[in-house]
Amino acid sequence: MNYDPIKHTLGRLFNRFTFTRKVFYHLLDILLLRTWHIHGELRRFFKSKKGLRGINVFDAGSGFGQYSYFLARKNPGWEILGVDVKTEEIEACRKFFKKAGLKNTSFEEGDLTIFRKENAFDLILSVDVMEHIEPDEQVFSHFYHSLKNGGMLLISTPSDQGGSGVENHDDESFIGEHVRDGYGMQEIQEKLKRAGFEKVEAKYTYGKPGKISWRLSMKYPIQLLGVSKLFLILLPFYYLLVMPFALLLNFADVRMKHSSGTGLMVKAFKN
Is residue 14 exposed (0-12), middle (13-18) or buried (19+ Cβ within 10 Å)? Predict the structure, then answer.
């Protein structure tokens, strides 16, 4: 399935007003299990930097800007840079963040296979990006060189345990823009170490509860929208029925330790 047209439709729908964009961000925070996991890791990072100002963050592949928004509001003294290859999304983020009065965040159009700023960032965040980029080790090297000593790279990406909807050898990726059907845990750790990172930690997300939640809250609605945009009218009623179950499943997923899962959360540190 080609996910981009659906994303563009949602973007146009919620970009009309500052209020609707904020509502959109809050909906993503509730619906997306990966957001639950990412916010948990970011809060742990916040505690390690408590009281510090002048922290520089790179949102690598910023997309709709929901993580830059979270970071900017939680840490007014930090500087956040969002970079994405898509002009439309960068322009939408610039417009919204200016209207929202968040002056500690800026956005640039850029290609992560090229973008690099030596020793510039304390934190690099890459959420659902690396599965879209073929020369991934090149990007990992740029991330390493762009981090300050003591900095952390946080990656959320599909695993090879079905993270792109591929559970059997003959399956096609659920997301047509993916260049790989997910990373093996050992594979991504080895690639990051070759890029220069000495300490790398990885864990599975989207275990058994998360898989069910993802199907209910994301996969099935996206498939319906792929058939016809008219299903937008029915989505509020669908989510009224589904959300209590999805929220319970999300809560269980972030609390549990998974021996396998369709997502990976990876932290890599530059000494």
Answer: buried
Q: Which residue has the tokens 């100002």?
A: 53
pLDDT tens-place string over residues 97-116 = 999 999 999 999 999 999 99
Cβ 84 vs Cβ 59: under 8 Å: no
Q: What is the CATH number of the domain that holds 203?
A: 3.40.50.150
User: How far apart are the C-alpha atoms of 206 and 213, rounded to whole Å?
Assistant: 9
Collapsing DSSP to helix, strand or coil, 226 comes out as helix
Q: Name which of 115, 218, 235, 122 is nearest 164 in CA terms.
A: 218
pLDDT at residue 16 in the model:
79
Selection from 95, 86, 115 nearest residue 3 by Cα: 86
CA angle 117-265-252, nearest 5°? 145
Q: How many residues does the chain have?
A: 271
Tally the domains of the chain.
1
Helix (H, G, I), strand (E, B) or coil at 105: strand
pTM given for the model: 0.89
Between CA 246 and CA 31 the distance in angstroms is 8
Q: How far, in Å, CA of 4 to CA of 6, rounded?
A: 5
End-to-end CA distance of the chain: 40
**Residues 151 and 168: beta-carbon distance below 8 Å:** no
Per-position b or e across 87-116, b if 16+ CB within 10 A of its CB? eebbebbbebbeeeebebbebeebebeebb
In whole angstroms, give the CA distance from residue 197 to residue 124: 13
Is the distance from CB of 72 to CB of 105 less than 8 angstroms?
A: yes
The ranges of the chain with pLDDT < 50 are 166, 168-174
Which domain covers residue 14, as residue numbers?
A: 4-269
> Which two tokens mark 210?
């998360």
